[in-house]
Write a structure and sequence with these properties.
Blueprint lengths: L5 E7 L8 E8 L7 E10 L2 H8 L12 H6 L25 E9 L11 E4 L2 E3 L10 E3 L11 E5 L3 E3 L6 H4 L3 H14 L6 E5 L4 H12 L3 E6 L4 H6 L4 E4 L5 H9 L3 E6 L6 H6 L1 E9 L12 H6 L3 E4 L7 H10 L7 E6 L3 H10 L5 E5 L2
Parallel strand pairs: 10-11, 10-13, 11-12, 13-14, 14-15, 16-17
Antiparallel strand pairs: 1-2, 3-4, 3-8, 3-17, 4-5, 5-9, 6-7
């Protein structure tokens, strides 16, 4: 494979609005380090992390959720020093994009050359030495290092997971972040066969993947979304779909389950947090991996104390979890939820569509 010296890339030049994303057709093509591979990108999926990092929403000075206005224009109160998911500063320029599917185009000197041409899907969690769950020992692809909104990208060879699947690159690019996040989210709450699970943000990439993972575990799922998306979510296997804007959401959840639920999975936060927690049974489990509707909530600690509830967060995934979960893709047990695809040069339009939240599943950019 002939590798050009220059490539196309969308480059983030600073925190702020969509104008901070700049398209180039002459960006230097990266070269793999000894333990890395160079991947020709076929497609790369969009995530909340892309928006959160661009706008520095992770900054503790930002208390709003990710609204369309904030996602497009940024947040005036954001602090660049806390701009990444780990509340540390990132450097610019930065190529974002964590969800890559493609083929290995070149290998570093310490990598087996037989991997050339291999079809891969990239594990976005880059674990370091030491305890894997500590933020200082983990970085994220497309955040602390350059990612996949480009023709080529380098990554450690161990993070380029071979994939044998008839799915297109665009379909495969719907998986990496949502699969690691959803599997970790579900793993932390550990739903059992026959248990009732309620999922907020069910129509998004993480939510729709979590639905499938819970069903594979034999659980019964209640989705929280909008009436317009209810039919699709029922087709995915949900027993019921609740309107997220209902004034009696907690009661709606209990009615659908025939009583209190066992598990609540949340990627939304904000106003949905109280009814989710309120619907949990004694010793119920709540697990969260996002707060796009608002990170600051009011909460009565007596619910946690006297109902013996279990609360867990889910961010940094255990090493090996992604490669293990990829077998579910190869065996067809997980279906891709591809909502739309855009050309790389139209990444700004793709992010606008992402922020509109009218889709089910994932939006990706494809590299022609």
């Amino acid at each position: 494979m002939t590798i050009p010296d220059r490539m196309r890339a969308v480059v983030l030049v600073g925190h702020g609005g969509l104008d901070q994303l700049v398209y180039h057709d002459d960006w230097p093509t990266p070269k793999p380090k000894p333990d890395e591979v160079l991947v020709k990108v076929g497609a790369c999926g969009l995530n909340n992390t892309d928006i959160n990092t661009r706008t520095a929403w992770y900054s503790k000075t930002v208390t709003d959720g990710i609204t369309q206005a904030g996602g497009k224009d940024g947040f005036a109160e954001a602090e660049a020093a806390q701009g990444s998911w780990s509340n540390s500063q990132i450097t610019f320029p930065r190529i974002q994009g964590a969800d890559v599917a493609g083929r290995i185009a070149a290998v570093g000197m310490d990598v087996d050359p037989s991997r050339l041409g291999e079809r891969v899907i990239l594990d976005p969690w880059l674990h370091g030495h030491g305890q894997w769950h500590l933020a200082e020992n983990a970085s994220y692809f497309g955040s602390e290092c350059n990612g996949g909104f480009a023709d080529y990208v380098t990554i450690r060879a161990a993070n380029a997971v071979p994939i044998n699947s008839p799915l297109s690159d665009a379909e495969l690019a719907t998986f990496p972040t949502v699969l690691t996040t959803a599997e970790h989210l579900v793993w932390r709450a550990d739903p059992q066969p026959g248990e009732w699970v309620v999922i907020a943000g069910a129509s998004g990439g993480v939510g729709s993947t979590a639905i499938q993972l819970c069903l594979l575990r034999g659980a019964q799922v209640i989705a929280i979304s909008t009436p317009q998306k209810a039919e699709t979510l029922r087709e995915l296997g949900c027993s019921a779909v609740m309107d997220r804007n209902s004034a009696s959401l907690e009661d709606d959840i209990r009615d659908a389950a025939g009583g209190a639920v066992d598990v609540a999975l949340d990627v939304v936060g904000g106003a949905l947090f109280p009814p989710l927690v309120g619907a949990l049974r004694q010793r119920g489990r709540y697990s969260t991996s996002g707060a796009i509707a608002g990170p600051v909530v009011a909460f009565d600690l007596r619910l946690l104390i006297y109902k013996d509830l279990q609360f867990t967060g889910a961010t940094i995934t255990p090493p090996g979890l992604f490669a293990q979960a990829c077998r579910l893709i190869e065996t067809g047990q997980l279906a891709p939820q591809l909502a739309a695809s855009f050309a790389l040069k139209d990444l700004v339009l793709a992010q606008e569509a992402f922020l509109a939240k009218s889709h089910i599943g994932k939006i990706v950019v494809t590299i022609e």
